[in-house]
């Protein structure tokens, strides 16, 4: 018997591998996602639920920002005393981070054990988010770029996204720190956050 056939015999002869299908790829997992999407998304809304790109409003409440810093963390959450706009996933799942330079939001969120949620970008595209993350903006501009909202590392210029179609979790820039909207997820059902059901 050759050495190759002995190795293949050992691998095939003793390795009884049970098939494994992650929960999110089963019929039950798919139906759970479809049910959540249908129940929580409003397809009949005429006006956009999202704030405009240049919207810098004074939020009611104390503090006068919709964001609060998590204890023992650099992350921000949506303040529970601020009425959240109607959206799905719910803003209670938001965890906002300032990425290191040369890092995407995908990586920044993964490093925190979360995933990037593009639906949250319109809610963090404001001066309150920059201030909450201590970005120390010397100026604030709205421009079209796939890495915005972000802070220019050297010049301390803060940039809002002017074109909502350019919001991206994947964009990377060596000169910018990005504002990253992350959220938690259910183990075995990454498409859904813990507050989504």
TrEMBL record:
Residues 15-182 form the Glycosyltransferase family 18 catalytic domain. Transmembrane segments: none annotated. GO terms for biological process: protein N-linked glycosylation. It is a single-pass type II membrane protein. Keywords: Glycoprotein, Glycosyltransferase, Golgi apparatus, Membrane, Signal-anchor, Transferase, Transmembrane, Transmembrane helix. Its main location: Golgi. Pfam families: Glyco_transf_18. GO terms for molecular function: alpha-1,6-mannosylglycoprotein 6-beta-N-acetylglucosaminyltransferase activity. This is alpha-1,6-mannosyl-glycoprotein 6-beta-N-acetylglucosaminyltransferase. It comes from Cyprinus carpio (Common carp).
